[in-house]
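pasting for ref
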Amino acid sequence: MEKRNDYIRWDEYFMGVALLSAQRSKDPNTQVGACIVNPDKKIVGVGYNGFPSGCNDDELPWAREGAYLDTKYPYVCHAELNAILNSISRDLKGCSIYVALFPCNECAKAIIQSGIKEIVYLSDKYAGTDSVVASKRMLGQAGVVLRQLKPNLQSIDISFTAVEA
């Protein structure tokens, strides 16, 4: 018997972990996940967008529009920051981070400071915004490699009932 040939590539695996992590987000509009991988292809951190630990997500706002303090923006931690803060290692030098959306300027600062050297992303839909323009400027100056993932797969199906008892 030969090995299977339809297994997923490393990039699709790690992006899949990031997308699965995003499913933990309680944000009604945007769910983003992140997965940090060291040079040995070991996952060292995952995160998703949400409020800081200990903050009640039933009392803080989830709105996207309105007065600043009545929106989610001053309260939400982005997936990239959470993955860095949740990492099992404080040494992230040389790691890659997989994320569905291109990181904002605030996350870019954390990525640079942590020593992550590559960002693998799916979408750059906010490319023209000031936040992403600033992000790309800083990441370029810091020598962080930016790579948009072009997956071979449209989706990965996960079934809790596929495993035989």
